[in-house]
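User: tokens in, sequence out, please.
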């Protein structure tokens, strides 16, 4: 069970890092959209920012519950 617990902790870290990366990419697109007055880039940036935040929330709340399955 120690290996499974360690694997869940690693999975939380990896998924959180992916979500944070998507959110940062969204912030960059959002700022680019505001800088160039491009509504398409603003929309895409906001979608990426929200998706990254959602991934981070899921990684922090749902994935740790996997360790209580067995």
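Assistant: Sequence out:
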């Amino acid at each position: 069970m120690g290996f499974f617990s360690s694997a869940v902790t690693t999975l939380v870290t990896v998924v959180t890092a992916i979500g944070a990366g998507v959110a940062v990419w969204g912030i960059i697109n959002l700022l680019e959209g505001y800088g160039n007055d491009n509504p398409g880039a603003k929309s895409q940036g906001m979608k990426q920012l929200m998706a990254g935040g959602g991934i981070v929330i899921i990684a922090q709340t749902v994935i740790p519950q996997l360790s209580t399955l067995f």
